[in-house]
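User: I'll paste a sequence; please echo it back and then give the predicted structure.

Assistant: Echoing your sequence first, then the prediction.
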Amino acid sequence: MKQKSKKVYVLGSDSTGWSIDKDRQYTIKAIKYIDGYEVVDNIFKADIIYAVWWNQLLSYKFRIFNLFFKKRVIACITNDLAHQQKEIKSILSLADIFVYANSFQKDQLFELGVKEEQLFFNPFYVDETIFKKLNFSKYELAKKFNIKYETIKDKLLIGSFQRDSLGTDLMKPKWQKNPDLLLEILNKLDKDKYLLLLAGPRRHYIIKKCKEFNIPYFFIGNEDYIDKNQDDLLVNALNIEDMPYLYNLIDLYIVSSKSEGGPKAVPEAVLCQTNIISTDVGFAKDLLDNKAIYKDSYEAVKLINNVIDNNIEFNHKVHQFYSFDNFKNRVENILKAIE
């Protein structure tokens, strides 16, 4: 007699097509390929709740549900727990398994008393069939984004595609992304030799500062919203299919964040064979060569100059983790551990 499939409800969505929605999409896809499990749309029918966004376990609605319907729960940690100690402590008894994306999260959970056998590493997946080296010239890539080739010719193209302005006040920086460190780095470089390529919504703060410090930049999007201090979230958001073209266009991506769960820019850039340097944040040290990690703007500038002069080679660890089969196998191990 065929064994009955375990029913899995995937919890977590912000309904904007952003990172969490992609995590949900790929987790559901992975489960559908795993024998013995099926995805259900009704949480009441589920045997297992797979929370791709652990914060949703904090909701009043889920807590009421959990009082009456005890389910096995998998909690995926999506951010830096150092700033959410009270919140994470409140769900420790609700979850059976904790999925961490980086070593910082594992250490934090371990310190809170989570047992080793409850902890599973699964860095946020990005699609290696989308993020890859493309066979297009710089001229062709620039043309795709309506950039005049003369604007970028003989320039070091530095990319930044993150939302780094506060949603509540677009002229203030999002502290987690730390755009001021990026500006500090750019101010130390020869401004005749590089161009900052900005893309994505809510770049108001860094564009304002680029103008203030005369930092050369090009914004891919409608800058009218920036000038009018209006939210461009629904206007300047990029399709994921466009992102690999951006990574292939630039020469270097800089992560300057103070606090991250990822960022996904790390595997995205590496899969596109684009140089990347990062602060020691999120899973940067788990996935990047240690030589690509910098502590301050002085170290970053030194790194950038070595990249320009081809005096450094990176041996990143991204490819050890990034294929859909690897991701599916990790999800399968997580599900089997909860039985």
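The longest strand covers residues 6-11. The longest helix spans residues 19-32.
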